[in-house]
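Worked example 3 (structure in, sequence out).
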């Protein structure tokens, strides 16, 4: 067991193993300046982020909160014509409150229904016992014993409920390990392709979380329709909005730490980017449908949800402060999954060196 953990840690700590602190928050990795063909650049990056997840459409409305500290870097090569190829990697601790981060659409499956069935069977047995009690008064002592067992079962039921509820409390739980690895190819300054791996290691069994490595794989394409962000402070008008419009398609697949396949989703989106003033304060707004395919474990059908994101980035020297809000809405009301909103909100700072 120790050897497997050390091997996992070594893998994650390797230069090409590790969410993108730079890419995820709009800095586009590296120095932000286009490299000449054949030119190479390496930029160390440190990101500190606090974030929370709110699954309001689920019955018990579980929460997760975390503080991440990810250290890594971006290797970037210039390809000419404004194009580039980059590899970005980062790793660090994730301090967890409540439950750990999980792939979108995860359904909490437990034995509550089975327990209710067992409880109903017990009630039927209890009624039969009452009939026997009327016929056999000498079995009264046995009935008392069974009644005591029923009380014990009831206590076990209470403990089961308490344990399940406890998994959604927001006490500090543990420190997990979070990583990110991404390869990005941009043939020019308007087109961008990304391939990413988000590993997340749960350090111990706790409530609904299982020790092991969670995995998320993604592929994404972004096409800018115009020349770039719209900056009203520099004289841009409403007619220039097309310069900030972009289209994207993002496909992701997720696995839990016990190897269970959670499902996959595809997000086609329309986005709009704004830049304010000479300080390049940026605001991105994007939204679109989410085509979600649950894993077979959930027993749910495919569905179409809504997904969007609002992101603000404020550069200050070599640091970039960011705030992002991801929201999804589901119209599906099924067992283990309800109609309503889910939110993920995060804020932090990225340092480049």
């Amino acid at each position: 067991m120790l050897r497997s953990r050390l091997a996992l840690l070594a893998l994650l700590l390797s230069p090409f193993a590790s969410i993108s602190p730079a890419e995820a928050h709009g800095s586009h990795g590296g120095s932000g300046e286009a490299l000449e063909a054949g030119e190479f650049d390496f930029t160390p990056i440190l990101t500190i982020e606090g974030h929370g997840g709110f699954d309001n459409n689920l019955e018990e409305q579980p929460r997760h909160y975390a503080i991440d500290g990810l250290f890594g870097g971006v290797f970037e090569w210039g390809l000419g014509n404004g194009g580039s190829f980059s590899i970005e990697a980062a790793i660090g601790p994730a301090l967890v409150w409540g439950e750990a981060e999980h792939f979108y659409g995860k359904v909490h499956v437990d034995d509550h229904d089975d327990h209710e069935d067992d409880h109903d069977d017990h009630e039927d047995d209890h009624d039969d016992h009452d009939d026997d009690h009327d016929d056999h008064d000498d079995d009264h002592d046995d009935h008392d014993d069974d009644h005591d067992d029923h009380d014990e079962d009831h206590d076990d039921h209470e403990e089961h409920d308490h344990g399940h509820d406890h998994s959604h409390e927001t006490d500090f739980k543990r420190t997990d390990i979070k990583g990110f690895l991404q390869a990005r190819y941009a043939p020019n300054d308007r087109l961008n392709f990304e391939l990413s791996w988000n590993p997340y290691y749960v350090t111990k069994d706790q409530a609904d979380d299982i020790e092991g490595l969670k995995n998320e794989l993604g592929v994404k394409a972004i096409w800018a329709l115009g020349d770039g962000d719209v900056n009203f402070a520099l004289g841009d008008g409403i007619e220039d909005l097309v310069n900030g419009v972009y289209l994207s398609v993002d496909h992701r697949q997720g696995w839990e730490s016990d190897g269970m396949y959670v499902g996959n989703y595809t997000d086609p989106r329309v986005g709009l980017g704004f830049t304010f003033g000479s300080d390049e304060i940026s605001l991105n707004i994007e939204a679109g449908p989410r085509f979600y395919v649950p894993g077979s474990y959930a027993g749910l059908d495919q569905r179409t949800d809504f997904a969007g994101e609002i992101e603000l980035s404020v550069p200050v020297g070599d640091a970039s402060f960011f705030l992002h809000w991801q929201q999804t809405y589901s119209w599906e009301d099924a067992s283990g999954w309800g109609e309503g909103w889910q939110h993920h909100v995060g804020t932090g700072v990225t340092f480049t060196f």
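Notes: The chain has a mean pLDDT of 80. DSSP finds three helices and twelve strands in the chain.
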